[in-house]
Specification:
- It is built from four helices and no strands.
- By secondary structure, the chain is mainly α.
């Protein structure tokens, strides 16, 4: 899965957090799908930033 295939907000947030981007790239397709589904339910930019921040810490 390429970053251009992600929801815009998720892709932009990942590009701003290198650790989260690296973690996302190492995930299985199933894990990535779960993150994408979660991102689609996010209601604000702040929530997206928290989701991506949490990726960088796992």
């Amino acid at each position: 899965m390429d970053i251009k295939d992600l929801p815009a907000g998720l892709g932009m947030a990942l590009m701003q957090n290198e650790d989260a981007m690296k973690r996302f790239e190492k995930m299985s397709e199933e894990e990535k799908s779960k993150v994408i589904e979660h991102a689609r339910s996010v209601g604000s930019k702040r929530e997206m930033q928290i989701l991506v921040y949490d990726l960088s810490k796992n």
